[in-house]
Amino acid sequence: MDLMKGKKGVIFGVSNNHGIAYAIAQQLHDAGADIAFTYAGDAMEKRVRPLAEGMNAKIIMPCDVTKEDEVKAVFAECEKVYGKLDFVVHAVAFAAKEDLQGDFINTSREGWDLALGVSAYSLVSICRAAQPIMNEGGSIFALTYLGSEYVVANYNVMGVAKAALEASMRYLATDMGKYGVRVNCISAGAVKTLAARGISGFDKMLKAAIVKAPLKRNVALEDVGRAGLYLASDLSTGTTGQILYVDCGCHCVYASGEEMEIIYKGMQNTEV
Q1: With 80 as the cut, is the pLDDT of residue 261 above it?
Q2: Residue 262 confidence (pLDDT)
Q3: Percentage of residues in the chain with pLDDT exceeding 70?
């Protein structure tokens, strides 16, 4: 398939070959895209470089997305090597482990600033640095999760960060639209990734998703990867400012019949 033949872009956030970012990169590469990769720190380079080299990447660079000069350096190198870019993938998020368990009310100011800076503001700085070298018709998209809209146990400050990310995406879609560039988010369902396992009780989230989802299964990495290919490609030229849900339908269901039965049994002695 040559859907992305001649298209060039950069992906922030690949950390291993078992994550959503890698699944998207694989789909883009298989469709013919030329992809630049970034990594955060020397330890991460050992994981990312072999994956990037396996996709014949011309650019493999360090980038701490909280440092404006490093973000600018990535796009300066992209301009030097590629000239213009057609897509940018934001797959960066982080929160301290202690803020992904227990009660949200105990989130520290430092934990708040860290989570929102890495996970949300970074999209703003990336778009600002990317804008001068984006081709008209280009695409920028970020990864989010339903915890931005609903309370998900132990997701805590990351849910707030994802809400900020989604709101930022809409404002950025307006700003970037003046240059013919679209900005969107993919809201992926619970997927077995190394990053997700940092959330306390994640296995329960996976089981609950199967019960709730209309498709009665968990979303697969390939599902999300193909959605990323859609947003990066010319198939989505009329789509911007949107959240594309790839969660087997979980977002559209308040509670399944099975969940309602469980809730009912738990409330039999409660007056309604």
Answers
A1: no
A2: 61
A3: 89
User: Other C-beta atoms within 10 Å of 55: how many?
Assistant: 18
Separation between Cα atoms, residue 47 and residue 21, nearest integer Å? 13
Q: Report the alpha-carbon distance of residue 165 to residue 122 in Å, rounded.
A: 9
The first and second tokens of residue 31, run together, are 């469709």
Question: How far is Cα 240 from Cα 139, in angstroms, rounded to an integer?
Answer: 9
Residue 124 exposed, middle or buried by CB count within 10 Å (0-12, 13-18, 19+): middle
pTM, to two decimals: 0.91
| Per-residue pLDDT tens digits for 184-205 | 999 998 877 655 555 556 677 7
Judged by phi (left if over 0) then psi (alpha if -120 to 50, else beta), residue 13 lies in left
Catalytic residues: 145, 155
Q: Which residues of 249-265 are buried (b: 16+ CB within 10 A; e: fewer)?
A: bbbeeeebeeeeeeeee
Spell out the SS3 assignment of 235-265: HHCCCCCCEEEECCCHHHCCCCHHHHHHHHH
